[in-house]
Amino acid sequence: MKSYHLDRFKGITIAMYSCYDEQGNVSPEAARRLARHYADVGVSGLYVGGSSGEGMLQSASERKLTLEAAVQEVGRELTVIAHVGAPSTRESIELAKHAEEVGAHAVSAVPAIYYRLSPQSVERHWQAIIDSTSLPFIIYHIPQTTGFQLSKSLLVKMAAQDKVIGVKISAESTFELQQFKAAGGDDFLVLNGPDEQYLAGRSIGADGGIGGTYGVMPELFMQIERCFAEGKLEEARKWQFTVNEIITELLSFPSLYGACKAILKLRGLDIGEPRMPLLPVAETDMERVRALNEKILHYIAQV
Ligand SMILES: CC(=O)N[C@H](C=O)[C@@H](O)[C@H](O)[C@H](O)CO
Ligand SMILES: CC(=O)C(=O)O
Prior knowledge:
Layout: E1 11-15, H1 28-41, E2 45-48, H2 60-74, E3 79-83, H3 89-102, E4 106-109, H4 119-131, E5 137-141, H5 143-146, H6 152-159, E6 164-169, H7 174-184, E7 189-192, H8 198-203, E8 208-211, H9 218-229, H10 233-250, H11 256-266, H12 286-302
Parallel strand pairs: 1-2, 1-8, 2-3, 3-4, 4-5, 5-6, 6-7, 7-8
Helix pairs in contact: 1-2, 2-3, 3-4, 6-7, 9-10, 10-12, 11-12
Bound molecules: 2-(acetylamino)-2-deoxy-D-mannose (MN9) and pyruvic acid (PYR).
The site of 2-(acetylamino)-2-deoxy-D-mannose (MN9) has 15 residues, from loops.
């Protein structure tokens, strides 16, 4: 058994969006407002500085500012996971140590990006991050962006350590998710990545989920989770279908995060635009964003 308390990592964990001011600088105030909003909705946790958080587009000091703001605002109410993946192991370690200092509850990392890495290299990278703090560690497996295929054997080797409490799997194969769950054992968390498959992931073994579209409709994912937990599978499926209709529309914009941020802005939560090369919503697309926001709010009102 792991010596860490794992329940706090289950449920709906929001992959938090980047928060900038009008000049495009990281805004700790906006990060606090956004984190507060999610705590008030009642989600389980926040995943800070991942894909949705644009960690890879920010300097280490900007990432630290954002994490500090989130932990200070909601760290006593929510589980805060710091994504510390970076191009170099050295920078990831710096971020992991900082995450521990400021009180994050876990660290997580993708394999180092850009270079094509051998499994040995990724293992050493993760191990160096794990060894740098006493926090639990969650592997982030997202082969479609990193190009790294995590093998079951490396997963098993990593999961054997007390500190490695789980994997966030963003690969789209629910079979792979199930295989990781079986390989990791009962006290190893598997967290669903693809939001479109939240229910499928949960049904086949995921303990919860971390997602990038949760941030514009946390209530709907909490509803799927509630229905699933109560065994109401028909109803859970209905909500998953609703969510998937929304995600399909979100993905039709030039950038997913641009669309999500524009939606939050319409609701009075201005967290800035995505950072280039990710694109904001074009003025000509704003009508479509407004309609989508209305649609999401309409469904949320039915929960
Ligand atoms: C590839 C990717 O970024 N996956 C995200 C996290 O796992 C998801 O949350 C997606 O953003 C979401 O499922 C929309 O496709
Ligand atoms: C999408 C997601 O889970 C992330 O931001 O890393």
